[in-house]
Structure formats: structure tokens, C-alpha cells
Amino acid sequence: MKNALVIGASRGIGLEFTRQLLKGGWSVYATARSSSDVKSLEALNATGIQLDVTNPSSVAGLGWTLDGLRIDLAIFVAGIYGANAGAKEVPSTLEFDAVMHTNVLGAMQLIPLIAPMLEESGGKFIFISSLMGSIAATQSSFGWVYRTSKAALNMAVKSASTDYPGAVFASMNPGWVQTQMGGSNAPTSVYESVSKMLGVIESLSLRDTGSFQSYDSREMNW
Ligand SMILES: NC(=O)c1ccc[n+]([C@@H]2O[C@H](COP(=O)([O-])OP(=O)(O)OC[C@H]3O[C@@H](n4cnc5c(N)ncnc54)[C@H](OP(=O)(O)O)[C@@H]3O)[C@@H](O)[C@H]2O)c1
């Protein structure tokens, strides 16, 4: 049985990854911030782990929990959106710090911890980014703190891929998805987004490391 780690699995896309991976026969280690969400993940037959990606001691605790385990697939899903404001407004320090700490520093803290485990297994490290993080696709500025955070996440992923050549690193656009973050007007169900992303992840090989993928099988422009 292969082992997957889903980081940020309390709801939305991370919870759906956990469900579909379990259904596909994976053993799943799934993280959530609250102990009640950890219990709900365990009720699904995942191994629940309490983790706040912004908290260095919580991240160190994850290292102890995973020590000695084989991890074949890790998916960094945790993320927050912040304000919808664009470039005509100055972001608050509070918003900037919260979004950057979660979406960027969260991933950067986990990479040195988990990437060596993935190199050992020849595994894959997938980071849920966004179309809004694509500089090439940008046509407006709404959500500019979030956009900036996902572009920064993309750089973290691309640059880290050069240090861990034995694992596949990829950023992934999940589409606009019906979750708490995406809202009910989003065109894509969480089931469809995740099942398509799992298909793309399955198809990736070492040749694809350092790439920006989309749930609908298009390779994205950075
Ligand atoms: N939905 C979309 O249309 C869309 C589009 C593009 C990209 N994305 C990206 O997809 C990912 C998942 O989003 P979603 O739509 O599923 O949103 P969501 O329903 O709001 O879920 C966000 C998840 O991130 C977790 N999280 C937030 N801060 C965290 C922290 N400090 N430590 C650990 N976990 C934390 C949340 O846990 P708690 O329950 O503890 O808050 C929750 O599990 C995000 O990275 C998002 O940017 C979503």
C-alpha cells in the first residue's frame, strides 16, 4: 500500500483528496488544525495529524510523527485567500502576513522536512497553487495579496525542484472550485477538480519536475 500525506485536509479540496485517495487504496496521513477535524479525518480511516503550517513547533512535530515512514505522495493544500482588494488599496500588514505565512512560508517550512522522504521513495510533492498565481495569465489585480502569494509559492516549488532531483515537484491549478474559498458560484465541483488532479498527478514523471500543471491536463504558463 502506498502512503500519501495531505496537508490541510479539514475541508474543501484537501478533504476531497483524502476521501478519493482512501477510496483508491492509499494509506493517508491527513492534517488539520483543530482536534475535532483530526477526529473526523480518523473517522474516515485516515491517520489524522494536528498541524498548523504557520507554526514552526507544529511543523517540527510533524517531522517527529512522520519519522521513519515512507511517503510516496505529499500534497500541500493549506491556503487562505485574504481580501479581495486589488492594486488600488494598500494591504494591511495583518492580511499580508497571514496570507504569506500560510501560503508561502507554510510550504517553505515543509519542503526541507518532507522532500528528502519523497526522494527516498521516488515520490511526488504537489502544491495547490492557482490560476491567480500565474503571472502570464494575469489580466486584473483583485485579490492581489493572494495572487502574489501563489506566484511566490510557484517560485518556491520551481526553485526547490532543483535541490531534490529524485522527487517530482509540481504546482497545480485546481480550477475554480466549489469550496468555502471558491464559493457556490464556482463552475467545478470539488469531486471533479480532485479526481482530475489525481489523474494529472498519476501521469507525472521525473521529466515533469518543476512544472505548473492544471487540473484539466493543460500545462500552465508561469
Ligand atoms: N476553491 C478554489 O476555487 C481554489 C482555486 C484556486 C486555488 N485554490 C487553493 O486550493 C487550496 C484549498 O482551498 P479550498 O478551496 O479547499 O479552501 P478551503 O475550503 O477554505 O480550505 C482551506 C484549507 O486550508 C487549511 N488551512 C488554512 N490555514 C492553515 C494553516 N495555517 N495550517 C494548516 N492548514 C490551514 C484549512 O484548514 P482549517 O479548516 O483549519 O481552516 C482548510 O483545510 C488553497 O491553497 C487554495 O488557495 C482554491
Description:
Helix 1 crosses helix 6 (190-203), helix 3 (56-66) packs parallel to helix 4 (93-121) and helix 4 (93-121) runs parallel beside helix 5. By secondary structure, this protein is of the alpha/beta class. The protein has 6 helices and 7 strands, in the order E-H-E-H-E-H-E-H-E-H-E-H-E. A 7-stranded parallel β-sheet has the order 3-2-1-4-5-6-7, sandwiched between helices. Bound molecules: NADP nicotinamide-adenine-dinucleotide phosphate. NADP nicotinamide-adenine-dinucleotide phosphate (NAP) is lined by residues 8, 10-14, 32-34, 51-54, 77-80, 102, 128, 130, 174, 176-177, 179-182, 186.
Describe, in short, the structure shown.
This protein is of the alpha/beta class. The protein has helices spanning 12-23, 35-43, 56-66, 93-121, 144-163, 190-203, and strands at residues 3-7, 27-32, 47-50, 73-76, 124-128, 168-173, 211-214. The chain has a seven-stranded parallel beta sheet with strand order 3-2-1-4-5-6-7, with helices on both faces.
- Provide the CATH architecture: 3-Layer(aba) Sandwich
User: What distance separates the N and C termini?
Assistant: 34 Å
The percent of residues in helical segments reads 40-55%
Shape by Cα distribution? globular
User: Which structural class do the helices and strands define?
Assistant: alpha/beta
SSE succession = EHEHEHEHEHEHE
Per DSSP, what share of the residues sits in E-state strands of 2 or more residues? 15-25%
Enumerate the spans where pLDDT stays under 50 for 5 or more consecutive residues: none
Number of strands: 7
Tally of individual domains: 1
What is the mean predicted local confidence, pLDDT?
A: 98
Query: Measured on Cα atoms, how large is the radius of gyration?
Result: 16 Å
Name every ligand kind in the structure.
NADP nicotinamide-adenine-dinucleotide phosphate
The order of strands across the largest sheet is: 3-2-1-4-5-6-7
CATH topology: Rossmann fold
Largest beta sheet, briefly?
Answer: 7 strands, parallel
Q: What would you give as the CATH superfamily?
A: NAD(P)-binding Rossmann-like Domain
Number of helices: 6
Q: Briefly, what CATH class?
A: Alpha Beta
